[in-house]
Amino acid sequence: MRQNMVIANWKLNGGTELIAEFANQWDSLTANNVQVVVCPPAVYLAAAQAHPSLVLGAQSCSAYQEGAYTGELSAAMLHEVGARYVLVGHSERRAMFGETDEVVANKIAAAQQANLVPVLCVGETAEQRSAGFTAKIILQQLEQGLLQADLTRLVIAYEPVWAIGTGETASPAQAQEIHALIRNWVAQQDKGVAAKIPLLYGGSVKPENAAELFQQQDIDGGLIGGASLDVEQFKAICTAAQEI
């Protein structure tokens, strides 16, 4: 049976007060065995460890384990201060910081070596979708990003770039089509893994659309951006995941 998940990606937002607010609401967020993960800015991970109920993730990690890489944070360092998951290949990092599929593959390998579970983010731009390249882009990101990966210790999130922070959302049918494509690709590698791997949708998920998205056959929850900064909105999304 697949694990339902909801991951909060706070991006460059949040702080100790929001961490405490989430900790106070944790029992209601995680009812019915939904795996909820909070990814605050990395500087708050150590403080978040004061709330042992929280399951924490990092928003990125370095592809390097150590060395002269000023400003980088290794997967092992993030694990030491409480992270159990890490986002890899988020569209904002691909676009803003030039992270290629090769870099993504190296980060996933580094994360798994440090006992973090990578959450691989894949998705197409509006231009790529208009040109009919969606499937090609998704499959390329999977094939190249997971070259070195252990698929049994992995989460995959489909986040159409055109829906990130725009208010636009893929229709449930559109989202399901791509999730089915992803699960089929995983099945070609290992059918047993495909039956268990959590596949999440990210892209302007809100309380109003979460239930319909999560009811799709191959969608196991969500990677939530803006709505994760409001604990009541996030709770409503988690409730939708609990009802899958």
Note down, in words, how this protein is organized:
The protein has 244 residues and is α/β, with parallel strands linked by helices. The protein has one domain (5-242): Aldolase class I (TIM Barrel, Alpha-Beta Barrel). The protein is 42% helix and 15% strand. It contains twelve helices and eight strands. The strands form two sheets. The protein has a five-stranded parallel sheet. Helix 6 crosses helix 8. The protein is globular, with a radius of gyration of 17 Å. 45% of the residues are buried.
pLDDT averaged over residues: 95
**Order of H and E elements:** EHHEHEHEHHEHHEHHEHEH
CATH first level: Alpha Beta
For the largest beta-sheet, the strand count, sense and barrel status come to: 5 strands, parallel
CATH architectural grouping: Alpha-Beta Barrel
- Round the Cα radius of gyration to an integer and report it: 17 Å
Termini gap: 12 Å
Instruction: Catalogue the unreliable spans.
Output: none
Alpha plus pi helix count: 12
- Gross morphology is globular
E-strand count = 8
What is the topological layout?
Elements: E1 5-9, H1 16-24, H2 26-29, E2 35-39, H3 45-48, E3 56-58, H4 75-80, E4 83-88, H5 91-97, H6 101-113, E5 117-122, H7 126-130, H8 134-145, E6 155-158, H9 172-189, H10 191-194, E7 199-201, H11 207-214, E8 221-224, H12 231-242
Parallel strand pairs: 1-2, 1-8, 3-4, 4-5, 5-6, 6-7
Task: Please name the defining characteristics of this protein.
single chain; 244 residues; alpha/beta; TIM Barrel; globular
Structure in a nutshell:
This protein is an alpha/beta fold and 244 residues long. It has helices spanning 16-24, 26-29, 45-48, 75-80, 91-97, 101-113, 126-130, 134-145, 172-189, 191-194, 207-214, 231-242, and strands at residues 5-9, 35-39, 56-58, 83-88, 117-122, 155-158, 199-201, 221-224.
